[in-house]
Amino acid sequence: MTENSEIYDEQKKLVLARFKTLNPDLKILLGGEKTLTVKDLIKAVEQGDDFGKKIVEVQMKMLQILGGSYS
Amino acid sequence: MTKTMIISRPNYDLNTSYLFDFSNEFIKIIKDSKEIHVTDLDAKNATREKFQKHLEKEKPKLIFLNGYGNRNSVFGHNDEIILDEKNIDLTKDAIIYAISCDSLEHLGQISIEKGTKAYIGYKARFMVISDPTHHSTPHKDNNALPFKKACTILINGLVSGFTVKEALDETKKEYLHSIKTYTKKDDPFGDTPMIRFALTWNLLFLGMYGDPNAVF
Question: Could you tell me which of B124, B147, B192, B105 has the C-alpha nearest to residue A53?
């Protein structure tokens, strides 16, 4: 396992742990498909598809923004 | 000299009702402007036929699209495709701002090849978190407010004479500000973390192709 994939796996675990504390039925309105729920986001992260990888990336960026280290 | 712009804003389901609401205040203000003529293709008027007719006749220099989309198209009323590769040449010399999913990715690039000055949009899904208790009154939905604010800053920037880059930068600043400061006094369903997530998502996937110095 490479260092990058280890980091990604850790990030994925963090994101899943966080998302699992949220209301699973909370709806996200989209400008493409009709709606998604938090449950759908969790599923995508668990499956590790492109959408799931983007979710992990965005959640990590959000933490950087909140922590003041985003530029 | 009067500048000409066009807006499409279908309103036929929950998601489009939110985007429709986002542009309501902008439309009210811009319709009073003597310097800008706006064609408002609202609700059922957001058809491909009407859209093309106005593009051909008025040659608007700013095209503001609200609605569903994908990599290749932007939709109008009832999921009708109003802009795609087949008619993108009608947007030559214009600035396009599309609040819809994914359209920047492919349609945005094609538009620049066909002569569009700049295409602003999202490279992935465009997300909004709503409060289900306000689904019939989106203008009262505080969950959606930071999303509405960011979208409004961009279009207001463009009509105020900002360059595309300046309008984008201001919008990104607004997204960052909202992510850092968004709080909700009454949050029984714990929506705040998802609101921050969706704002970050929109921030990261908002972008442009074409001339960053283009001005309406």
Answer: B124
